[in-house]
């Protein structure tokens, strides 16, 4: 490259570098892990900052020396040959000692932080069981008997001890704003624990699976709601019940027509048994208000082109929908409760056998299909009609009459499938499950 060429390129290159550096400043990074929301974050961010600082010092010193040497000792036309040296004990000891010292400064706090975080969680922590499924998240609160999916509630200020396990392949649990991720490993229970700091503002946060787990790995997300302890108590009190507003609220499972199958427990997950009778006074339904969810936590996945007669949605009849799901005569058409649990209804599987998310309070959730879609009537209707068309590989089958299931390369025979009116009724029922 000629010098004149270099002169012309240099200002552009410098400008580009400055712009690049500026682009890294400011801005809003809602999924950044460099927050100070938990004790776990604090430890990791401290280590990162220290590593950055020491690394930068080393980089600057080395580069300055390098550039200085290159310029000062460069070959000059007609100059003398450089002085030849061999070995310099002082220099070699120095450049071994300095990196060793830097490594000590990195290693001591790193090992300390690792030990702090690998300790057992304090006994009084809130226990949350995280169970990974292809491709959605199950959350259980054993001390309250709550099972939910894809939406995790945490009280601010309380230490939470997650036990992580998987029903199928490896997954990894991560809420960047709350710190460290951890893998879900088959045949073992992993733990991670942290305390959302009391100074944290109630908010919704994004979470994701961060270990490749198959075709819809990228669609395996979840929401975390960090709420005040009072809000958490309200949420718990309501989640413990059967659904409000559902006709099931006045029905007991004692008159179930179908007996529960034998229970096949997961390795350590708590068994949540169905209540034998509906509670007498049901507490008010509470979930995190949708209008308080930051924009970046609202799903924006476009809906598929699946056709649906939308005028039916407004007229959906929850009673008819419930009949479709719970009357054994309709099991061929709507075998929903063989894979899903709705507390207080006649279920064909318990929580440990269910292949799909617990739907007891689905009407209070904001998202579904592992955070991929906003939960509204239209999205739910399209989902029931043809879930694999909305989430590649989804284990939830296609139910719409005549719809093509790309997973098994077969269309649902018109007579065996659900028509739009029936789906609208089911949607009305599911939405009534507050
Ligand atoms: C073979 C098992 C199976 C059957 C039968 C089944 N589902 Fe599902 N369902 C699933 C699975 C698995 C998921 C989770 C899919 C995902 O997110 O990847 C799911 C997800 C859902 C969701 C979203 C829940 C959430 O929180 O994300 C709804 C609503 C739902 N199913 C309703 C129904 C209805 C209504 C029927 C009956 C017409 C039905 N399902 C039948 C397996 C099943
Ligand atoms: Cu994954």
User: What is the CATH superfamily label of one domain?
Assistant: Cytochrome c-like domain
- At CATH level 3, the topology of one domain is Cytochrome Bc1 Complex, Chain D, domain 2
Coarse morphology: elongated
The level of helicity is 25-40%
First and last CA, distance: 71 Å
Number of strands: 14
**At CATH's second level, what is the architecture of one domain?**
Orthogonal Bundle
Structure description:
With 434 residues, this protein is α+β, with helices and mostly antiparallel strands. Among the domains are: 126-236, Immunoglobulin-like, CATH 2.60.40.420; 247-264 and 272-432, Orthogonal Bundle (Cytochrome Bc1 Complex, Chain D, domain 2). It is built from 9 helices and 14 strands. A 5-stranded mixed β-sheet has the order 3-2-1-5-8, with no helix packed on it. Helix 2 runs antiparallel to helix 3 (89-118), helix 6 (318-326) packs across helix 9 and helix 8 packs across helix 9. It starts with a helix and ends with a helix. Residues 250-277 have low confidence and may be disordered.
At a glance:
By secondary structure, the chain is α+β, with helices and mostly antiparallel strands.
Element layout with pairings:
Layout: H1 3-23, H2 39-72, H3 89-118, E1 126-133, E2 136-141, E3 146-149, E4 151-155, E5 160-166, E6 171-175, E7 179-184, E8 190-194, E9 203-209, E10 221-227, H4 229-239, H5 311-314, H6 318-326, H7 336-339, E11 367-368, E12 373-374, H8 377-385, E13 404-405, E14 410-411, H9 420-432
Parallel strand pairs: 1-5, 4-10
Antiparallel strand pairs: 1-2, 2-3, 5-8, 6-7, 6-9, 9-10, 11-12, 13-14
Helix pairs in contact: 2-3, 6-9, 8-9
The structure holds heme C and copper (II) ion.
């Amino acid at each position: 490259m000629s010098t004149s060429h270099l002169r012309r390129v240099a200002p552009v290159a410098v400008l580009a570098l400055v712009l690049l550096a500026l682009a890294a400043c400011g801005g809003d990074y809602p999924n950044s892990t460099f927050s100070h929301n938990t004790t776990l974050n604090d430890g990791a961010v401290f280590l990162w900052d220290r590593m950055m600082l020491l690394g930068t010092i080393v980089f600057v010193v080395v580069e300055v020396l390098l550039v200085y040497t290159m310029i000062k000792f460069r070959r000059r036309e007609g100059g003398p040959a450089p002085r030849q040296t061999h070995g310099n004990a002082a220099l070699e000891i120095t450049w071994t000692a300095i990196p060793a010292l830097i490594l000590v400064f990195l290693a001591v706090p790193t090992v300390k932080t690792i030990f702090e975080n690998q300790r057992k969680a304090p006994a009084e922590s809130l226990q949350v069981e995280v169970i990974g499924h292809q491709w959605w998240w199950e959350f259980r609160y054993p001390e309250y008997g709550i099972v939910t999916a894809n939406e995790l509630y945490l009280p601010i200020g309380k230490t939470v001890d997650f036990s992580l396990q998987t029903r199928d392949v490896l997954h990894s649990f991560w809420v960047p704003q709350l710190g460290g991720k951890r893998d879900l490993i088959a045949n073992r229970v992993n733990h991670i624990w942290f305390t959302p700091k009391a100074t944290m503002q109630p908010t919704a946060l994004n979470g994701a699976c961060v270990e490749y787990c198959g075709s819809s790995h990228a669609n395996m997300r979840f929401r975390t709601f960090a709420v005040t302890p009072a809000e958490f108590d309200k949420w718990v009190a309501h989640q413990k019940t059967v659904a409000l507003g559902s006709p099931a609220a006045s029905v007991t499972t004692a008159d179930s027509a179908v007996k529960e199958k034998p229970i096949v427990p997961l390795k350590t997950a708590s068994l949540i048994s169905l209540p034998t009778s509906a509670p007498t006074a049901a507490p008010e339904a509470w979930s995190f208000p949708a209008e308080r969810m930051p924009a970046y936590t609202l799903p924006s996945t476009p809906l598929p082109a699946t056709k649906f007669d939308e005028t039916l949605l407004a007229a959906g009849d929850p009673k008819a929908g419930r009949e479709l799901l719970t009357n054994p005569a309709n099991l061929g058409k709507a075998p929903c409760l063989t894979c899903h649990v709705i507390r207080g209804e006649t279920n064909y599987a318990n929580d440990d056998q269910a292949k799909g998310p617990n739907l007891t309070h689905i009407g209070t959730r904001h998202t579904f299909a592992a955070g991929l879609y906003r939960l509204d009537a239209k999205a739910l209707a399209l989902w029931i009609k043809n879930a694999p068309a909305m989430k590649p590989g989804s284990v939830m089958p296609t139910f719409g009459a005549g719809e093509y299931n790309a997973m098994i390369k077969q269309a649902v025979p018109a007579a065996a499938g659900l028509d739009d009116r029936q789906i609208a009724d089911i949607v009305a029922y599911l939405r009534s499950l507050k």
